[in-house]
Amino acid sequence: MSHFDFNDVNHNGLQDATHLPPSTAPMTPVQLQALVLQLSATVEQHSSVISDLLALRKENEQLKAQNASLIAKMTEMEKTISHQKTQLQHLSVTNKVSEAPKVSDTDGKSQKEGNSYSDAAKRAPKTPAQVTPARPLKKRISAARPFRSAEAQGPKGFEYYAKKFIAIMTKAQAQVIEDFDPLDPAHLADPKYASLSETERLQETFSLVHQRAMNTLSFVRPVSVAAVGRFFVELSWIDDNDLLLALQEAKIRLAKEDPKQADFVFRNLPAPAPETTMTTPSAPSSSPSVLSSLRLALWNANGLRATTVHDVLSHSRDAADVLFITETWLTSGLLPTNWSQYHLYGKPVVNAHGRGSAGICCLVSPSCPFLVHQLPSYNAHTLSMKIGRVTVHCLYLPPSLSSELALSVLNSLPLSSDTVLCGDFNARLGALTGDLVVNPRGRSLLPWLGERALRVLNAELSHGVATFTSFRRNVEVSSIIDLFLTNIPTSGMVSPSLSVESDLSLGSDHRLMFLSFGYIPSNPRDDDSSSSSVLAPRRLWNLSRLNEVDPLLLYRSRFHSLVAPLAATLSELVSSPSGARPPIDSLNDSLNEYDSIGPKASRPGYWKKYWTPHLEAAARERDRRYRVDKAYWWTLYQDAHRSFRHAVAAAKRLSWKNFCASLEKDFSKATATLARLKRRKQASSSYTHPDGPQSAVDTMAAHLATVYDGSLLSSADRPAPPPDFSGLYGPGILALRSSGAVKTMALLNSVGVNRNGFSLLLSSRLYTCFIRPKLEYGLAISRLTSSDVKALDKLQNRLVGMFLGSSWVNVAKHITCIHPFLHRYKVLMTRYVLRSRSLAGDCLVILLRDSLRYPRLVQLLSENSLYRSLPVPPPTSSSALKALFDSHWQEQFDRQMSSATSSGKFALLRACRPSVSRPDPILYLPMSRTARSRLVRWRLGRFTNMDEECPCVSGARLSRDHFLVCRAIDPSLIEQLPPSPPSVNRIDHALNSLPLSASDGPPPFWSALLSLLYVVDTLCHPLAHIAPDPDPGDSWFSVSASPP
């Protein structure tokens, strides 16, 4: 830094100011004032320069200190590197000496005699006493490899060995064939295949490649079979079933060398299906029969969310058939999953925004092979289920519960044979489970377990493995409080296993646990009713895959080889039929077993909608940070967990937008989809029985027979209806239908019928399809007064406001053609009368017409202006009637707008198109979602409903007319709009001038109109960041420019 003299600065700075120009004339007061101001400015400038120089000096001193610290660190690192080089040189010399050839005994003897301890000391290398071995150094280098960048790590796996192998083969002058396809029949050079056809050669090639791939997997290291096998599956050389067999064989190979490592590496491998043998009734088997493996999962969620359940189910779908979740905190509702759900809801927490406490949930996989039946709840802390023949009680005993109350809850449970108790007991059993301490509840629980002869599976199968892990004051705290208890004897559980996923991050302090065992009933029944406890697995065929060439050829090859024994059996039955009936059922089962390439594991559909490779990488990164040193990586893990959640939320939003856009194109598809979602959201009750579905059918049939056999009817005859029937009671209909309509509208609102989901046009059409018929049911034969019609209109406004997101619904109803209830009441009554005229003579209404009087109908028809306006005879087609109904309502609407013009009311409604039978074109013309939102908000008056001052600093308030003269808006945008009639807003006139069909092409002012509304949006929301449209109106221009 160059030297700077403050004296020079002060002297030179004051020189021009103090040395006045030579003048003999006295200075005027104005000149003296100017001179004083000049001197003051100069002094202030000098003061700022001095403060800046002081700050620079201070920063210079700090940089000098940092440089000195960095130089010291570099010197220390150079010493360390030099020391490590010396160690490596010593290790290389030592290895060379150890590899030197041995000398003869005579030479060695003479050397020993000639050497002394001093000579040996002189020859010893002068190195430090403590030398770091080479193996720990290699371990540290290997441990640091995952933290390097992908470029620094270099090639991985087969890429590294492939390069080395190609280099060796190239050096040996071997030719490398690029893009070699082993499935090409041209490579089948064996002469014995020369006579085969092209299809047969292709099938034979598939068979050879399949056999070689399976042989390769049998020689690959067991830990690498999964990766190599998945690669073979992607190439269609093998299928999933073959990979499962290869993995099971690899587990057997690895178990011979290291059983513990085999159990850890293949912990998620499903158990092989037990072989079933057919036995005759005359020779029953003496050994007990083993039912299907029972697989249970347990997890404490600490508050279950919709996004969390997706994560836990993705880890449980291949390892568990039934998942129990404690502490769900749910007070009502269902989870978004295709697994069957059984809930024990918790209690609401005061001032917790709808959150509850406790709560237990049971999720049953769609592929569960057992019948699952919910038992009555014996207390407020237990969810009891019947899974096949096993009774499972899932409990959550909160820490606030005293030991006496906890034991009373446990004593209320019926502990019949073959019972499993699981859940969060908040009891630490000490040395029994391998825990460090015993808490008071654990001391009370130990005698209770001994009295009831309950086994603690945690102690037998996962002794010392913590189920709860947390960090308090940066110290890891763990305990074993999630337990599995059972009274099933040891002989009744075949190959039991209990795994605790300690390295799995699910956003909870508790660990996900999996219990599986082969179940042998302790009391086998003599009858055959037990077969109903296990459901036959549903077989699904993905026939669309047969349109692909490779799966089709693989299917033909496998089916041809597998069906050969069945074909031989059928040929023998045809050639030499016997007198007995052939086993048709067993032959059919054999054919079904052969008629598939391989079973496909069930996968929840919601993973396919939004899951991407980016989310997969984020999830793996989160899990990787959780598995390493938690004390150091905990903060990094939490950051990765938040990033993963944000990525999942963003992917779901994108998937949701695509889903809404797909339904906008096809209304029939939208109605079918909404109906399916509506059925899925509504809880449907079903009757089940612990003894199986047949027992449920018999019990329900017997119950209905006693209800409808007529024994409950009274002996007296029903009274006849009154002669003057005046119709249904209007207020009663409103009270009966309003709650159901609001509930259904709330259900549709949750699946997309809202302003953030479907468009306004689609939402209005779904309202008229699903909701309005609920309100109109029975109106044609009802007696409605003017107050009843107003109440119905008020209810309709509430329902429309639910998907509109506002209480101002008049304009929205007009532009979407939702008519008021007075007009709908007249239409329904007119249709009812016209339809009754065309009924057959033996209809009930026609038969009762002569015996019942309809004074109400005659009076209302005389007052019904719509009915009286029909021509004679009235039209019979539905379209002609609809045209007459729309024309009648158009006349009434025009009269209302004429009277509103003189009074100044309904300004927004008068600015819209006057048509009541066609939706406003802004709802369906091609444009972006944001542009359509601005057009709709302009129609609804959302931009001018805020009594605020315009940001143009003109002092004017935000209004529809002010935007036409606002200084913040480019006048050229307004000039491009078509001229409007007097007293008509120019923007409203431009919207009313839009064509009715997109095929007519966009008008010249289309881009200017969208740009103008974007500026209006920014003026009304000055603090929001609104992204501009790069090319306004491009959607319509591209549609009109594309060829038909």
Report on this structure.
- The protein is an alpha+beta fold and 1044 residues long.
- The chain has 38 helices and 18 strands.
- 50% of the residues lie in helices and 8% in strands.
- A six-stranded mixed sheet has the order 3-6-2-1-16-15.
- Strand 7 and strand 8 form a beta hairpin.
- It starts with 5 loop residues before the first helix and ends with a helix.
- Residues 1-24, 93-135, 273-290, 525-537 and 601-606 have low confidence and may be disordered.
Helix content: 40-55%
How many β-strand stretches? 18
Shape: globular
> How many DSSP helices?
38
Unreliable parts: 1-24, 93-135, 273-290, 525-537, 601-606
Q: On the 0-100 scale, what is the average pLDDT?
A: 77
The oligomeric state is single chain
Strand content: 5-15%
Distance between the termini: 74 Å
Structural class: alpha+beta
The profile of the biggest β sheet is: 6 strands, mixed
What is the gyration radius calculated from CA atoms? 42 Å
Largest sheet, spatial ordering of strands: 3-6-2-1-16-15
